[in-house]
Write a structure and sequence with these properties.
Layout (H helix, E strand, L loop, with lengths): L1 H14 L4 H6 L12 H13 L1 H16 L5 E10 L10 E2 L7 E9 L5 E8 L8 H11 L6 E4 L6 H8 L6 E4 L8 H8 L3
Parallel strand pairs: 1-5, 5-6
Antiparallel strand pairs: 1-3, 2-3, 3-4
């Protein structure tokens, strides 16, 4: 019952975040009675992966209908997850990781209220800036955004990404952070100028 498994995973993520195994071990803490094995949880993950994009759109539509949704500002960031494995595979690849383990990159777009809209997973050796157009393109296409302003960190800054947002007929905007410490003296003086 993938519905019951999803209920457990969501409840445990909200009330006692941890691994899938931890959610299974603690399943009797909750009012709902769950009748499935740990192996069933792991098998359900393949099903969830197949319907991920449709499921994200469904969740967004339900949230928008019940509570409203402000997609005029989109927050975007990339994070990664490392795995306790020694060998890389098709998705889990060696990339920028403090742990020196294979990682998976995740690009996440959120609405103005911090509600996740859409995410995508990328191989661990994908640069942050290379995830941007794929995720933002999906958001613009499927989440009724109209004109948007994207807020992201400096790992996303490239001329191509800025043009993607603002070039041609696009009237979108952006706020990208930029390091002052590592910048030129002219830029530092400009930022620190009170006028």
């Amino acid at each position: 019952n993938t519905n019951a498994i999803m209920i457990l995973l969501v409840i445990s993520r909200l009330l006692s975040p941890g691994s899938k195994k931890k959610a299974f071990v603690e399943k009797n803490r909750y009012f709902e009675r769950f009748n499935f094995s740990l192996a069933d949880i792991y098998r359900a993950l393949s099903h969830y992966a197949k319907i991920a994009k449709e499921f994200q759109r469904y969740l967004h539509n339900e949230i928008a209908e019940k509570y409203g949704c402000n997609t005029k500002t989109i927050y975007y960031d990339v994070t990664n997850f490392y795995f306790e494995i020694d060998e890389a595979d098709e998705l889990r690849k060696f990339g920028p990781s403090k742990e020196k383990r294979p990682i998976v990159q995740m690009g996440l777009a959120m609405d103005a209220d911090g509600i996740p809209l859409h995410y995508e997973l990328f191989p661990g050796n994908t640069l942050d800036k290379e995830t941007f157009r794929s995720v933002i393109g999906e958001v613009r296409k499927n989440y009724d955004t109209g004109r948007i302003v994207v807020v992201a960190d400096m790992g996303i800054i490239t001329g191509d990404n800025i043009y993607y947002l603002t070039g041609g007929k696009n009237r979108n905007g952006y706020v990208f952070s930029f390091s002052i410490r590592g910048s030129t003296d002219a830029f530092k003086n400009y930022v620190l100028d009170n006028e």
